[in-house]
Write a structure and sequence with these properties.
Shape: elongated
Largest sheet: 6 strands, parallel
CATH class of the largest domain: Alpha Beta
Number of helices: 17
Number of strands: 11
Structural class: alpha/beta
Number of domains: 2
Order of helices and strands: EHEHEHEHHEHHEHHEEHHHHEHHEEHH
Distance between the termini: 33 Å
CATH topology of the largest domain: Rossmann fold
Strand content: 5-15%
Radius of gyration: 25 Å
CATH architecture of the largest domain: 3-Layer(aba) Sandwich
Length: 396
């Protein structure tokens, strides 16, 4: 049995943050009913066609869900929503601020008739009616939140800030929504009452800013942008080997530095060189030290460098491509790669990173737009003629 079997999640969602949260609930066995726009569905379906004709964004965040199309502006659709809410345990939405309230889908509007309902509102800057803040209605996309939260100020090169290559602000908000919903379900099990969760992309991303926020406390200088290297520890980052491939290495302390000099570089005297005998000095002299390391690695292939690093117990990694990750030997050995059904056939998918030992590893299917509309409406009591009429009116 899956942990969330018997839990129904109603998802008024689009793009990434909310779909990422509800996909994880679906992975744990919840029934997730995804409400999509009539005519085209979630706009993320149109972002690209790279996943065997489907959108890579949509495939990633929507397996295991059921798709129901509704034109939420129509009164008949709002009647459908009321029936759905009556059967739901959780309502997740990331519509524009205030939109859910206008549809009668706010926690304030629903809690009287549905006291056990958990409502999770995900927005860019927070959607608290008591403390809205001046940016409540500001449009929020992943890159913009990365910038607003200060992430770009510490990421990139000295010449230019760089965004993360994945949608980390969306992911952060989705993770906090996911974990908060699980906590709310536990709390409801004790009290019998639902609650409202207000998840902000900005606040989620700021929480992830970790040491840089404290590094600048009381007006101190910020950590420098150091590309793929660590801003305040050295050597810690990418170094080219003689075969053109890149090795990432990370040294954490003076003991490892001495071992690295001796066993990897073959230059034990560097460990006590006054230019490099403490981490702050190595950070200050990183250009000189980098040249020495690159020269030492030049006669070696990346595999040979890693062999030396492993023998010396120095942390390291390969600079893998996406193709390398699909074929990663560790993920293969641990059985992390599975298959999800989709409208275009079997789709490879990575299994969730943390599951109970006895968990059913089967991955849910990626739905076509409106694939489950008739099924769900039938469960809600709509007959075939009523469903036909709703479709003729453009409601579904």
């Amino acid at each position: 049995m899956r942990p969330l079997e018997g839990i129904t999640v109603l998802a008024l969602e689009h793009v990434i943050a909310a779909p990422f949260a509800t996909r994880q609930l679906a992975d744990l066995g919840a029934r997730v009913i995804k409400i999509e726009r009539t005519g085209g569905g979630d706009q993320a379906r149109g972002y690209d066609r790279r996943a065997r004709g489907l959108s890579s964004h949509f495939v990633w965040t929507n397996r295991g869900k059921q798709s129901l199309t509704l034109d939420l502006k129509q009164p008949a659709a709002q009647a459908v929503m009321q029936r759905l809410v009556a059967q739901a345990d959780v309502l997740v939405q990331n519509l524009a601020p205030g939109a859910a309230a206008r549809l009668g889908m706010s926690h304030a509007a629903l809690k009287g008739a549905h006291p056990r309902l958990i409502v999770c509102d995900i927005s860019g800057y927070g959607d608290d009616p008591v403390h809205p803040g001046p940016l409540r209605d500001k449009k929020a996309y992943d890159l913009l939140i990365q910038s607003e939260a200060g992430f770009l100020s510490v990421t990139g090169t000295p010449e230019s800030p760089v965004k993360a290559g994945a949608s980390i602000a969306d992911i952060a908000a989705g993770m906090y929504a996911y974990s908060s919903i699980l906590a709310a379900l536990i709390q409801r099990g004790r009290t019998g009452l639902g609650c409202r969760l207000d998840v902000s992309m900005l606040e989620a991303m700021v929480e992830w800013m970790s040491f840089p926020l404290y590094y600048v406390l009381d007006g101190a200088e910020p950590p420098p942008r150091a590309g793929a290297a660590h801003a305040t520890i050295y050597p810690y980052g990418p170094f080219p080997a003689g075969d053109g491939r890149t090795v990432m290495l990370g040294l954490q302390n003076e003991r490892e530095w001495a071992t690295f000099c001796d066993k990897v570089l073959g230059q034990p005297a560097l460990a006590t060189d006054p230019r490099f005998d403490a981490n702050p000095k190595r950070v200050e002299a990183r250009a000189v030290l980098r040249a020495l390391i690159v020269d030492a690695f030049a006669p070696l292939t990346a595999a040979q460098v890693i062999e030396r690093l492993e023998a010396a117990a120095i942390a390291n990694a390969r600079l893998n491509t996406m193709a390398d990750v699909w074929a990663h030997e560790q993920l293969q050995a641990r059985g992390r790669l599975g298959v999800a059904a989709s409208p275009v056939g079997p789709m490879p998918a990575f299994r969730p990173p943390a599951l109970p030992d006895d968990f059913d590893p089967q991955l849910g299917a990626i739905p076509a737009v409106g694939e489950h509309t008739d099924l769900i409406l039938g469960e809600l009591g709509y007959g075939p003629e009523e469903i036909t009429a709703l479709r003729a009116a453009g409601t579904i």
